[in-house]
Write a structure and sequence with these properties.
single chain; 2 strands
């Protein structure tokens, strides 16, 4: 059921992507390669996104076992799709910005995919709120570690609401003036922030300093993005300085 909703989410995302790509006029032969890269990357990322769960490699499944029996990760699918598009565009030499078309598609696809998580995973940590999900003995039996009769945060409902709200915003914002790729950047930053926060009420294992694996992954990516931006900014300032020096020498 979980994989079925992930697959349905990918189909929904592909349909939205197709419509939006037609609207902004970026559909051509290389568009299909970008879509193929996204689908392959999402499939691989979904299956291998939870491979390195333990710092000691001996505690992790083998690559083959992970592919066949490991947990599926929607965040891994999202990262894999992003990387797959980049690789496909590099291989085909396509330099068109596609992020604005992908952003609303990914948001709606994630909302659909999370329905599978809601139906097949532990909802979240205990909560005193009346909105908590209470699992009965029969349901908790096939959810290892799930408490019985305790109100739990419906963390996947929180995310579904977030993704639908993000889709609604992006669907309207796409018609307004914005810089190339701005919609995708907004979505990635917003989702990373939301996901880091919602992890505190998710049912995931805390592995280090009270943070879960997804939180550490998000922090790692944030550091990488910050370093890359600093490097690019430094190169831009250096190039500008050299241009000013060269202009001064030519006078």
């Amino acid at each position: 059921l979980h994989d079925a909703f992930i697959g349905l989410g990918m189909v929904v995302a592909a349909l939205v992507l197709w419509r939006e790509s037609q609207r902004i006029g970026i559909v051509e032969d290389r568009w299909w390669w970008a879509l193929l890269g996204a689908l392959v990357g999402a499939a691989v990322g979904s299956r291998l996104g939870t491979w390195f769960q333990h710092l000691d490699p001996r505690d992790n499944l083998s690559l083959i076992d992970q592919w066949q029996y490991g947990n599926r990760s929607i965040v891994g699918a999202l990262a894999g799709a992003w990387l797959g598009v980049i690789v496909a565009k590099r291989l085909t030499g396509w330099k068109v910005t596609t992020g604005d078309a992908f952003a609303p598609a990914v948001a709606l696809g994630m909302a659909v995919g999370r329905i599978g998580c809601l139906l097949t995973e532990i909802p979240g940590k205990p909560t005193g709120g009346e909105w908590g999900v209470v699992l009965g003995p029969e349901t908790a039996e096939w959810l290892p570690g799930a408490p019985v009769g305790v109100p739990l945060h419906p963390s996947f409902v929180y995310e579904i609401v977030f993704q639908l709200a993000a889709f609604a915003y992006l669907w309207r914002a796409r018609l307004k003036p914005h810089g190339p790729g701005a919609l995708l950047r907004w979505y990635v930053v917003a989702y990373a922030t939301f996901r880091f926060a919602v992890e505190f009420v998710r049912g995931n294992e805390e592995v280090w300093f009270g943070l879960t694996r997804p939180q550490w992954v998000i922090l790692g990516f944030a550091v990488v993005v910050l370093v890359v931006r600093l490097v690019l900014s430094g190169r831009a300032r250096l190039a500008e300085r050299r241009s000013l020096v060269a202009a001064a020498d030519s006078q």
